[in-house]
Amino acid sequence: MPPVWTTPHRPAPVDAVVSLPGSKSITARALVLAAIADGPSRLVRPLRARDTDLMAAGLRALGVQIADAGDDQLVVPGPLRGPAEVDAGLAGTVLRFLPPVAALADGDVRLDGDARLRDRPNAGLIAGLRGAGVRIDDGGRGRAPFTVHGTGRVRGGAVTVDASESSQVVSGLLLAAARFDDGLDLSLAGKVPSMPHVDMTVTTLRAHGVDVTATERGWRVSPGPIAARDVVVEPDLSNAAPFLAAALVTGGQVTVRDWPELTTQPGAQLDRLLTQMGAAVTRTPDGLQVTGAGGIRPLVADLGEVGELTPVLAALCALADGPSRLTGIGHLRGHETDRLQALDEVLTAVGARVEQLPDGLVIEPGPLRAATVDSYADHRMVHAAAVLGLAADGIRVTGADAVTKTLPDFIDRWSALLGAPAGVVR
Ligand SMILES: O=C(O)C1=C[C@@H](OP(=O)(O)O)[C@@H](O)[C@H](O)C1
Ligand SMILES: C=C(OP(=O)(O)O)C(=O)O
């Protein structure tokens, strides 16, 4: 990969059908549940990218067998044990889903990752696990690195957590809770962002035979076995965002194959959001088809449920025909980078006027100009720059290899999307 990626400029309408690899979030949940299930499981077409490879490596370090079988993965649970070191890279899913599993292991498990991981908030999870009887040494920081002193079992019971900084705190605790001696009666202190991701967790647990009920203040998980299940992983709908956005920017047409009829992925909301921005969105026998009309309408929306769509939507806002206001996304300051700050810098560099709100952004488009921008080690900032580059000639990105986090061949796929006449881009 060149150190600086010059994003392709494409004023002509795109016309393509795109197939995308599996969902990061579904793969992460499938791996974790398979690792603590009551028998072996097959994951069909899981995502193979940095985040999910780190999840698999972390589980292997705890004693789980995970083998590749063509495009699939076979997972065989074993006794969970330490001592172990887990590298979470920059993956929020590993940072928040593995510590509750580590607590079930017999022995110490130390978790660390990239320099930026050490800034990502995790006090809610650490306090929640302590409330469930787990001993954790985090030097009082509430962040990585920390050591989970696993004893082979977790008491569980009534626990109150603050998950206002990440829904993954809730998901991490719920995923392992059926294996706690007393299950878990989880109460929330405050609001939780990205609620569709919590719904995804609850739905996935039920599909594995776990008894989860919503309570007035949260969720209750009964103790019991987690049934091993083979899981067919849906395409990643959040990673569909830049490809569908290309239809809007160029006034072209993009179809994403195998768009699920029913899904818990928040990316499903692209249908509604891109329609609001002026796209015609239809379902065809192939998948979800987005057609751009030649202009982009501004977006005024609370994106709290779909925070991970923000970078691409914000890029579209910088190309719209009026000012946009995106709110409900204060927690994005704790993502791969401070995404509100990063988007402010990038959109300003290409000519927009940006105002940061405590929980969002106001974006006023301006005359576009060429710029070299950073990836901030954030895959979705590369997606955003790629979308801007369609409209502005001369957008260059340093550190574009950040895309390995969830879509390692993004740059090849993007080039193919733009080079392809009508046809399948793989
Ligand atoms: O549970 C998950 O798979 C995710 C939950 C969300 O995290 P936050 O609630 O921290 O935004 C989302 O942004 C992330 O990309 C994936
Ligand atoms: C926020 C994201 O990732 P993570 O799972 O690392 O939190 C993301 O993919 O947009």
TrEMBL record:
It catalyses: 3-phosphoshikimate + phosphoenolpyruvate = 5-O-(1-carboxyvinyl)-3-phosphoshikimate + phosphate. GO terms for cellular component: cytoplasm. This is 3-phosphoshikimate 1-carboxyvinyltransferase. Its EC number is 2.5.1.19. It comes from Blastococcus tunisiensis. 3-phosphoshikimate binds at K24, S25, R29, S166, S167, Q168, S194, E308, H335. InterPro entries: Enolpyruvate_Tfrase_dom, Enolpyruvate_Tfrase_sf, EPSP_synthase, EPSP_synthase_CS, RNA3'P_cycl/enolpyr_Trfase_a/b. The lineage of its organism: Bacteria, Bacillati, Actinomycetota, Actinomycetes, Geodermatophilales. One of its GO terms (biological process) is aromatic amino acid family biosynthetic process. The gene is aroA. Residues 11-414 form the Enolpyruvate transferase domain. Phosphoenolpyruvate binds at K24, G92, R120, Q168, R339, R380, K405. Catalyzes the transfer of the enolpyruvyl moiety of phosphoenolpyruvate (PEP) to the 5-hydroxyl of shikimate-3-phosphate (S3P) to produce enolpyruvyl shikimate-3-phosphate and inorganic phosphate.
